[in-house]
Amino acid sequence: MEGSLSILKKTQYQNTIKQDLTHTQSDTVPVELVYDGKILHKNFSKQNTYDDTWFMNEIKKGTLPFWISRMLS
Q1: Is residue 42 part of a domain?
Q2: Could you list the residue range(s) of the whole structural domain that residue 44 is in?
Q3: Total number of domains constituting the chain
Q4: Which residues pair with 34 in a beta bridge?
Q5: What string of pLDDT tens digits covers the 73 residues of the chain?
Q6: Is residue 14 part of a domain?
């Protein structure tokens, strides 16, 4: 009797393929909004997503990382 045998690796041992990665490419470049404890207002104009109002609201809500809020106080 002739036959064939197919073997699949367990999921944790399978090779990673491009579709497994969740990172999506972005056309934006990171921009510094805080430097040396000062808000860089001119850098908000470099991106369309956020503005000074958004930034100040995030500070008030406490949703920014602790170290940013501490630098600004």
Answers
A1: yes
A2: 30-73
A3: 1
A4: 39
A5: 577 778 888 888 888 887 777 766 666 677 788 888 788 888 877 666 778 888 888 878 877 766 665 666 5
A6: no
- Write the CA distances from 61 to 16, 41, 51, 55, 69, integer angstroms: 39, 19, 16, 10, 10
Question: Residue 11 falls within a domain, yes or no?
Answer: no
Cα pseudo-dihedral 36, 38, 44, 45, rounded to 10: -100
Degrees to nearest 5, angle at CA 36 with 44 and 39 = 25
Mark out the alpha helices in 1-73 (DSSP H runs). 52-61, 66-72
Tokens of 73: 């106080």
